[in-house]
Design goal:
The complex is a heterotrimer. Chain A is mainly alpha-helical. Chain A is built from 13 helices and no strands. In chain B, helix 11 runs antiparallel to helix 14 and helix 18 runs antiparallel to helix 19. The chains are: A mainly alpha, B alpha+beta, C mainly alpha. Chains in contact: A-B, A-C, B-C.
């Protein structure tokens, strides 16, 4: 196991290196530089500014320089927000994204779990169809529509919660709620499917035959085992939700990372693009790794020896 | 069981970590907003006095507070209200003396001597003439985004420094005393005073700037103010607060105590915040206009930006002026502004925006030159078919390069229908790309048609006219008419204002009447909601958008 | 495996029959030959699946709705004389109106209760209303449904082909291959999508091909991960071992034993891919890679409608209703399929 973990960690670094390299060169392929956006810069100024930041050098040189700085832990400065470090920008903005994402994840998983379990137990009944419908509405109506509806009815009409802005705990509720819709749908659908699978397994029949009462069977044997594959799905979902989502952050004026990322790409803020990509990929790879490990622990049927031998 | 405890522990830790990293923006807004609604009575028992707090929204974070590097509306806005230059735009958008008490001009109109008022920076240091010299040279040294403004102003050697032929230290500005500043121009420049109100010409405290180094202007405490307001707090990406600067030389005329700005990027969110009383003014997009059009706070504000079509002048068909004129005539601008956009935009048949620029005897530039290339669909069709026959083409397949914004997309869809319906054989394909790429495509001139916008830099028609000279960085369509190039050069130095104005009128005629070089579409405007209690919030057509100096809150 | 189960069941039934202690009946002699005989007719996997699918009320209902929607998508745009692109500014922003359906809200009145058709003197009825260009939304919604259905099918196909194969191969062969394949996925997820898309915009002609290309890049990654996870779990199980011992080839193992057992998660995942792809397309259209205006998919219509949803709610409601209906039907059908195809559900 130990050597497997070390091996994986080694691969993580290689993967990150490939991602960084590919992103760097792809990004440079897009015409323009970070100085394209201030529309009124003259050609002469562009030349001066590009030279000043080394953007006039061959991409390969720029890449090596970037790698050099990266190894020293320096992510560089933002071009768009003059003088701010990429590090501080990610640091400032990951908090709100992660917080909203986490709340959405917890709330969404609970509701999704209940819907999914209920649906599976009342298989092909009206309740099943109803909970399928709820879950499906969650995935077929985009979250920005939910967000706008919530904002209007709960924020403007009822005045229960803040409409937008980031001014204390109460302003995290609506965005979390809007974001949780996706989680609810995902968890509910997967749990339902897995539950049905597990319900047909021999060990469930055994448990029942043993005389365990139904609720114990459902909770201990069925739900728990049905949860295992859901973890595969939930891990990467958690990463993408907690690193921020453009629309929700925009609608609720949340100073999050998702909005920053899109903006940086659109204005070609090179260093910020690279910084966030690195951060996001590292997190994603780490979570995938953890899920794999966790999976091995939770499910004794999976064996990583094969991987070790390879 | 052990698993569960572990999980719970990990979860709690993550939660705590995340919460601590949340930096909620908890400014003193809470107090302000609750008191603000009710109005407070002062202790002396005077009649109820409204709290002088103005709450606004901004569409983006401030990219930089360094006046030498600033290049966008958000930053200009804050700089204009927290700092004071030699001149400032007044309520009628005229440049008036601000920090300069006296402005003497030499006989030949090339040496300008300014006498400054005795004022202090917000850290107590006196504002000196050297602060101007330092800042202006710094603009040149750092190749600040708007350094060409110094060249436009005609300051001695600015052009040469821009072209890296001279050192920034040789700029024609010199502090001749603590409070006297001498600026030398290349030649007399009628625009000089107008330009001085622009934020790029603000002073900077050398000692402060150099002490902070790369930390300068990154946080509220890392900038200095010498204007009507001080920047007291700035939470990145969330908002900032300005407070009245009691040490400002004209503080008696500043009525607001506080201006609170929050960053709101989604227009519908802005409208919802307005409805719940969180902000006092919000801009509505076309999609929201109908919903609020009978709201009592609904207003239309005119703006000075122009939206127009660039033609690729190298295109085999679009290169012909009469083809471009037919395109001009085929577009019904009224339908575009009144039915599709509905946001206060107005039809435009010229390159200089209307209602802002007047001749020395007070006549509107736009009215003097009138509507150019305006025609009926029938006229357009006739001209189109005739010219097409002359060229020997039957049909024209072109594409239009647009940015991926909501309004650009709408305009493009409208143009497509208008042109394809009114001009037989015209096929228009829409190609949307992100804003930066739209600019790159324009600069490379690899488009057929491009939907572009332009905002004026200063209050003079020239800001719309000199961009069309050959090789100008905003030409971007290979347009070249020597007559226009010469006339622009002459107008730069013409000091007889009415003669100069005649020249300006003539430039537009060459561009549009003679060459139909572009197709102007509309002049921008905004539909807004603004509380009736907000008075005299001055909005400028160019430079910084707002001046809060004269604004007040009244019952 | 299933046959064995059935034989046992038949056996036990026979024993039960044999037990009642009634003198009138004499236990039939146990015929050793019949013991191994299969009494129920042998039904092919697919036939049985089909039968089970049609017994599922939800699935049948969903199938009918899908057929109707598909027909409407094909025929709808041709029902009236408007095309999806013809503009008529005099008829801009008209609310929906259908004679006889006034009580359902198709009354031609705006949010404030004014009869827009009366005030603007318009004779013609627009069933789904019009947009700001005066384009008929009925036509546009069904035209959009065509496009969105097409994208749904393409996305599902990519998922089923690339995603399932990739995940399956990766997990089945395991070892170094799995390691490399999984790292490739991580790289694909790690490189920002938007950068790749912007590059596509600048290189390719916008249109359906570029949408599909964009989907090919990352659209199937979720599926590959799900399938891999499932197969990793299954491949160590006894029935696989048994089959392998009996000399089953790898292809047979994957196709006959592993994949049918992963059907559930595969179907659920496809159901997630479809709406993701539909809205991904809307996003692409917005930044220019997707369909070029004035062509609009359901996703684009929803995005447009959402902006003025409080005043012109109909602009949002119709496309949103159609897409929801499509998705609910797809899911009910998928659930039915899942039940029908899952070998473990065979009773």
């Amino acid at each position: 196991m130990k050597s497997y973990i070390f091996k994986r960690l080694g691969f993580m670094i290689v993967t990150l290196f490939v991602i960084v390299t590919a992103t760097f060169f792809l990004m440079q392929l897009i015409p323009g530089t970070p100085f394209t956006n201030p529309e009124k810069l003259t050609e002469k100024q562009l030349v001066i500014l590009n030279a000043k930041y080394g953007l006039d050098q061959p991409v390969a040189i720029q890449y090596l320089k970037y790698l050099g700085n990266l190894i020293q832990g320096d992510l560089g400065y933002s071009f768009q927000y003059d003088g701010r470090t990429v590090f501080s920008m990610i640091g400032d903005r990951i908090g709100p994204s992660a917080f909203i994402g986490l709340q959405a994840l917890i709330f969404g998983s609970i509701i999704g779990l209940l819907l999914g379990v209920f649906s599976a137990l009342r298989h092909n009944s009206v309740y099943d169809y109803l909970s399928v419908t709820i879950a499906v509405l969650g995935m077929s109506i985009p979250s920005f529509v939910f967000a706008a509806l919530l904002q209007y009815y709960v924020g403007v009409k009822l005045e229960w919660l803040p409409v937008a802005l980031w001014e204390g705990y109460s302003s995290t509720i609506l965005p979390s709620f809007a974001l949780s819709v996706t989680v609810i749908a995902t968890v509910a659908r997967f749990i339902r499917s897995e539950m049905l699978e597990v319900l047909g397994q021999d060990y469930v029949t055994t448990a029942r035959a043993k005389g365990l009462n139904e609720s114990a069977v459902i909770v201990k044997h069925v739900t728990r085992n049905a949860l295992i594959p859901v973890v595969t799905m939930l891990g990467p979902l958690a990463v993408s939700i907690m690193t921020g989502t453009l629309v929700i952050e925009k609608i609720f004026s949340v100073p999050g990372l998702g909005e920053q990322f899109t903006l940086s790409i659109l204005v070609l803020d090179y260093s910020v693009i690279m910084g966030i990509t690195l951060f996001y990929s590292a997190l994603f790879i780490l979570v995938v790794f953890l899920v794999d490990i966790l999976y091995g622990f939770l499910d004794p049927r999976i064996d990583y020896k094969g991987a070790e031998q390879a | 069981m052990r698993n569960k405890t572990w999980m719970a522990f990990i979860f709690l830790t993550i939660f705590a970590l995340v919460l601590s990293g949340c930096n909620f923006n908890k400014p003193d807004t809470d107090k302000g907003s609750t008191d603000g609604k009710e109005g407070t009575t002062t202790e002396k028992g005077e009649t109820a006095k409204v709290e002088q707090v103005l709450r606004l929204s901004a569409s983006a974070e401030i990219p930089t507070m360094d006046s030498t590097k600033a290049h966008d509306g958000v930053a200009f806005n804050v700089l204009n209200n927290t700092n004071e230059g030699l001149y400032r735009q007044d309520e009628n958008n005229e440049s008036i003396l601000a920090l300069a008490e006296k402005h003497d001009v030499s006989e030949d109109e090339t040496v300008h001597t300014f006498t400054l008022r005795k004022t202090n920076w917000s850290n107590g240091d006196p504002v000196t003439a050297a602060d101007f010299e330092y800042a202006w040279k710094r603009v040149m040294r750092e190749a600040g985004a708007y350094n060409y403004m110094l060249a436009t102003a005609g300051i001695k050697n600015a052009e040469a420094i821009m072209n890296e032929e001279m050192d920034a230290d040789e700029l024609g500005i010199k502090a001749t005393g603590d409070l006297t500043l001498e600026v030398t121009l290349e030649s007399p420049n009628p625009l000089f005073v107008t330009l001085l109100a622009f934020p790029t010409f603000l002073p900077q405290n050398q000692q402060f700037v150099e002490e902070l180094g790369d930390q300068y202007a990154l946080e509220a405490e890392n900038v200095l103010s010498n204007g009507p307001f001080k920047l007291v707090s700035w939470t990145h990406e969330q908002g900032w607060t300005l407070e009245k600067n009691e040490d400002y030389w004209d503080a008696d005329n500043v009525k607001l105590d506080k201006v609170e700005v929050v960053v709101v990027k989604e227009p519908s969110t802005g409208a919802n915040l307005y409805e719940t009383g969180k902000i006092d003014r919000t801009v509505l997009t076309s999609a929201l206009v109908q919903q609020y059009s009978d709201n009592e706070d609904f207003q239309i504000e005119k703006e000075s930006g122009i939206i127009f079509l660039r033609f690729n002048h190298n295109h085999p068909v679009l290169g012909h002026p009469e083809i471009r004129r037919a395109v001009n005539m085929a577009i019904d601008r009224d339908g575009l502004t009144d039915i599709i956009l509905q946001d206060g935009s107005t039809p435009l048949y010229g390159v200089v925006a209307g209602e802002y620029y007047f001749s020395p005897d007070g006549k509107d530039y736009r009215e003097l030159n009138g509507d150019i290339n305006k025609g009926t669909p029938e006229e357009a069709k006739a001209l189109w078919e005739k010219t097409l026959a002359e060229i020997g083409e039957k049909e024209v397949n072109v594409s239009i390069n647009i940015a991926d914004s909501e309004s650009h997309k709408k305009v493009a869809e409208y143009l497509q229908a208008q042109l394809e319906d009114n001009l037989p054989g015209f096929k228009l394909e829409i190609k949307a790309v992100p804003f930066a790429q739209r600019l790159e495509i324009e600069k490379a001139i690899t488009y057929d048609l491009s939907l572009s916008s332009w905002g004026p830099d200063y209050s003079d028609p020239m800001t719309y006219l000199d961009m069309w000279v050959k090789g100008g960085s905003a030409n971007r369509m290979d347009y070249d008419n020597p007559k226009l190039n010469n006339l622009v050069q002459q107008a730069y130095t013409e000091t007889d204002l009415s003669k100069r104005f005649e020249m300006l009128l003539e430039i537009e005629k060459i561009l549009l009447v003679e060459d139909a070089a572009i197709a102007p579409l509309y002049q921008t405007g905004v539909a807004i909601l603004k509380r009736g209690t907000v008075k005299k919030l001055v909005k400028h057509p160019s430079g910084a958008e707002f001046s809060y100096k004269w604004a007040s809150i009244e019952e | 495996m299933n046959t064995v189960k059935e034989v046992e069941r038949i056996d036990s039934v026979k024993q039960n029959v044999a037990e009642p202690p009634d003198d009138l009946f004499v236990a039939a002699p146990l015929n050793r030959d019949v013991r191994e005989e299969i009494l129920t007719p042998s039904i092919s996997f697919w036939k049985e699946a089909r039968e089970r699918l049609f017994k599922n009320k939800g699935a049948v209902f969903a199938l009918i709705v899908l057929v109707i929607l598909t027909l409407l998508a094909l025929v709808g745009p041709a029902i009236n004389e408007h095309t999806y692109r013809s503009q008529n500014l005099a008829h801009s922003n008209l609310p929906p109106k259908v004679d006889g359906l006034e009580w359902l809200g198709f009354n031609g009145k705006d949010v404030k209760g004014n009869d827009v058709y009366a005030t603007r003197n318009i004779e013609e009825n627009y069933w789904f209303g019009t947009d700001e260009f005066g384009r008929d939304l009925w036509t546009r919604v069904w035209k959009g449904t065509q496009i969105s259905l097409f994208i749904a099918i393409v996305a599902a196909a990519l998922d089923l082909v690339i995603g399932v194969l990739y995940g399956g191969i990766s997990a089945f062969y395991g070892g170094r291959l799995d390691n490399v394949m999984q790292r490739i996925i991580e790289v694909l997820v790690g490189i920002p999508n938007l950068i790749v898309i912007i590059l596509f915009i600048l290189i390719l002609e916008p249109g359906i091909t570029s949408i599909i290309l964009a989907l090919v890049v990352t659209g199937w990654v979720g599926m590959a991960r799900v399938v891999r996870g499932q197969i990793l779990q299954l491949k160590g199980q006894e029935f696989i071992l048994a089959s392998r011992t009996l000399g089953a080839s790898n292809t047979r193992l994957i196709g006959k034993h592993l994949l049918p057992n992963v059907m559930g998660p595969i179907i659920v995942t496809v159901m997630f891919t479809i709406p993701t792809a539909i809205f991904f397309e809307a996003f692409l259209s917005f930044i220019g890679l997707g369909l070029q205006a004035p062509l609009a998919s359901l996703g684009v219509l929803i995005e447009d409608g959402y902006k003025s949803m409080r005043f012109f709610s109909y602009k949002l409601i119709f496309p949103a209703a159609v897409i929801s209906l499509i998705m609910i039907s797809f899911n009910l059908l998928a659930d039915g399929l899942r039940d029908a195809l899952d070998p473990k559900m065979r009773r």
